Amino acid sequence: MTRISIPDDFPVVLATSAAFPALQARAQLDYHATLPGSEDALIQRIGQAVAVLNVRSSSRFTDRVFAACPQLRLDSIWGTGTDHVDLAAAARHGVAIANTPGVSARSIAEHALALLFAVARRIPEMHAATRRGEWPRGSSIELYGKICGVVGYGAIGRRFATLAEALGMRVLLWTMHPETYPGVDFVDLDRLLAESDVVSLHLRLSPQTESLIDSARFARMKPGVILINTARGAIVHEPALLQALTGGPLYGAGLDVFAAEPLPPNHPLTVLPNVVLTPHCAGITPEALEAGLQMAVDNLWKFPE
């Protein structure tokens, strides 16, 4: 039987999924329902496994990890992001990387839309005030007819663009690789930022996208813009974001991702009234969860032994 390590199923999602019993029956598992906590512990948990089913992006697969696990041939990731994996090192050590693109696109796009409504209508703030017996009025923004800039045109960005258009918004699109989508009308990023009333980020984190939205790009945005980020926190330069929220162009922001996760207690973002925060959960609905875990398991069997 194939020896497979699951080093990081915490909080537990894989072991309670419909995909797990068949995996147990077909492979010899080294299963761990806690996070490894260190590089040494991750190496120990991988042990002699030829494949890893990597549940959490906090498990970082570095050159040292690959070098210490010469028997490893496949890292099957639950999720789309690969920013926790040294891809060049994986290639040097002959380790294939698989992920689960697209399975959570609908869930994440819907969550981005929910964040947009929550910020535009100030729903958390209105909810809390109404519970206190107050009766605040007239501080919402209507989205119909506004311009929505979608930054990134993968499965999630495309789905979100469709939802924004359904609301009657005019959508501007930018992608790093426009040649991949012949016939799609893209604009340059500076124009998108200058014209948009809403900017929603749907990019992978990479050396090219880290701090893509910095103080210079915030300065290009018009006053009253809403920022939505369900991609990766590090795509936005956090000090510049805080400045843009308190003294810059942003009306508000809806954030599911952060530079440091979990978000540290007493972080400046937690006290700003124009920010709606969720704990990196946009892609975790029952439907997306089961589909993604099943794909991550299926990817194990697609790789030739």
Number of contiguous helices: 11
Assign the CATH class of the largest domain.
Alpha Beta
Separation, N- and C-terminal Cα atoms: 11 Å
Strand content: 15-25%
**What is the correct CATH architecture of the largest domain?**
3-Layer(aba) Sandwich
Broad structural category: alpha/beta
Query: Any idea of the CATH topology of the largest domain?
Result: Rossmann fold
Strand element count = 11
The largest β sheet comes out as: 6 strands, parallel
Number of discrete domains: 2
Task: Give an overview in words.
This protein is of the alpha/beta class. It folds into two domains: 119 residues, Rossmann fold, CATH 3.40.50.720; 173 residues, Rossmann fold (3-Layer(aba) Sandwich). It has eleven helices and eleven strands. The strands form two sheets. The chain has a six-stranded parallel beta sheet, sandwiched between helices. Strands 2-1-3-4-5 form a five-stranded parallel beta sheet. The longest helix is centred in the last third of the chain and has 17 residues. The chain starts with a strand and ends with a helix.
